[in-house]
Amino acid sequence: MQLIEHLKWRYATKQFDPTRKVPAEDLEKIKKAVQLSVSSYGLQLYKVLIIGDQELKKRLKPASFEQDQITDSSHLIVFCNYTEVKDHHVDEFLERKSKIQNIDMQDLVDYGDFMKDDINNKSNIEKPHWTARQTYLALGNLLTACAELKIDACPMEGFEPDQYNKILGLEEQGLNASVIATIGYRTANDQRQFADKVRKPEHQLFEVI
């Protein structure tokens, strides 16, 4: 199983080579992996920003506790969840489902009503937490895809979402920066790449019932 070897290879890269950029064709593969991520009801209530503009990355660095990965990496990936869930989000999904799976829209009315009722029963506090959790599922696919492509990545929660929202104009779009990742290529002198992974042993992590 090559996936296991890919996951052994990856680590949270802290030192990126600023001279190396991820090729466009590999970016497309990463985008496809993220697009195919699972999400609740398949709604994908988030947007993903792929930032390669160096000046914008420099503006975001102070809001990222001055971490060098922001500017040294090839691209900064910002996962943004919708802070409100509206009926039109469900309607748009049903329209896609009808078109792609060749299902009459009338046959999807009950399913749509079920989803809307479930979502509308969530509190205004719970909804953004729910949509934010979906972005982590997409982040997992990004990290796995990068590992297979031998592209380094670092998932990051060390940033100020409010500042990101302001700099990127996210609030006006009903979005919030929930988690970020940097991708690129490790430097040869990053000693972390040589360290053995520290993980719980299987007998502690798993229980087969």
From TrEMBL:
Segment forming the signal sequence: none
Single annotated GO MF: oxidoreductase activity
Ranges that cross the membrane: none
InterPro entries noted in UniProt: NfsB-like (IPR033878), Nitroreductase (IPR029479), Nitroreductase-like (IPR000415)
Keyword Oxidoreductase: yes
Pfam families per the UniProt record, alphabetical: Nitroreductase
Entry keyword annotation includes Repressor: no
Protein family: Belongs to the nitroreductase family.
Protein name: Nitroreductase
Source organism (scientific name): Fodinibius roseus
